[in-house]
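User: quick one
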Amino acid sequence: DSGVTQTPKHLITATGQRVTLRCSPRSGDLSVYWYQQSLDQGLQFLIQYYNGEERAKGNILERFSAQQFPDLHSELNLSSLELGDSALYFCASSVDFATYEQYFGPGTRLTVT
Amino acid sequence: AQSVTQLDSQVPVFEEAPVELRCNYSSSVSVYLFWYVQYPNQGLQLLLKYLSGSTLVKGINGFEAEFNKSQTSFHLRKPSVHISDTAEYFCAVTPGGYQKVTFGTGTKLQVIP
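Assistant: Done. Structure below.
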């Protein structure tokens, strides 16, 4: 158990819908990262937050957005969902902004039908 | 920008035999290197990391990796594998700081009894 929690574990929704994935980092970690893992794209970095502020952006689509709240939990919002958005979404956390050691959550499996 | 290449998508090996999982990287700046393991239906777990200093890095579960700057490689090794090592292994690289982590496509290690 990494100490990072993600909810829900599974999510099934239809195309065009909007969903919110939630992540709680390890106690004391200030930085949160979001990743997408799919069979065709592999593991892709989406976005990083540090203490409430966006710090790094990866291959995140404009239909996707994220935020980190004052209690440090984070949410990833996915809208206008397409079949190709079906994937495992991981959250990771680290103590500070340095990406030297990230602790991954168990992931949320999103299925878009 | 940096990139990571894991040439072997699958590596079958008999139990108690040695194994090497290959990783090559490309970057115009100094980097930090990592190996992560993903067991079925779980998130990623850090095996080991190279930040600086000794080029031979020891990690958890008996794994080690050697940083070779001239060959831009960071191969993962274990002298004797167990059934429980069956998993997918990811090599990752980052310039550090606020820069994103780039993951390789993964190598599935299958340990045969």
